[in-house]
Amino acid sequence: xxxxxxxxxxxxxxxxxxxxxxxxxxxxxxxxxxxxxxxxxxxxxxxxxxxxxxxxxxxxxxxxxxxxxxxxxxxxxxxxxxxxxxxxxxxxxxxxxxxxxxxxxxxxxxxxxxx
Amino acid sequence: xxxxxxxxxxxxxxxxxxxxxxxxxxxxxxxxxxxxxxxxxxxxxxxxxxxxxxxxxxxxxxxxxxxxxxxxxxxxxxxxxxxxxxxxxxxxxxxxxxxxxxxxxxxxxxxxxxx
Lengths: 115, 115
Fold this sequence. Notes:
Helix content of chain A: under 10%
Oligomer: heterodimer
Low-confidence stretches of chain B: none
Largest sheet of chain A: 7 strands, mixed
């Protein structure tokens, strides 16, 4: 079974340009997360979806970041315009959340460099 | 909200020795505590987790202990091998009564196992 698939793996853009990341979660997983991981730090949650609904986007910088999960399957995270401080690894994860926590599976991430 | 602190930030051991990484959390409602291993260029991968109804869980050379009263949990790796070298993250959930919801990660411990 395929794991969480993210693309692209790497992206280099100039500041003020837009960028988009794509994530395909594990089949059947109802919950999808986008995390940002700065160098030498742990992942920090940006947004969490349960099916197609964003149930927690309190950490998403809404002035420049947007996300969608149409049909409750794959998801896209967009930054427009990008700033130098957005350079980080963007991780997508998915899980099957019900009564109890279950394992969150992570993709390999997209390394974004803003120059 | 949940606050997770992890120590040490770096740990160097000789092959065959044991390694211990400790985390504390703040939300007494949390009842699920996973540990992730992240190798260079990859996403975090779950290696072991524990729920609050048990105090210890073991899987071959890896064990996790939980002290709910003191609100801390630890990862123990015995008979370390060079392939154990990686960054390890602890996490605890926040939101939804502490059992589901968003994982809050520690800042990570870079473990180096010297042959």
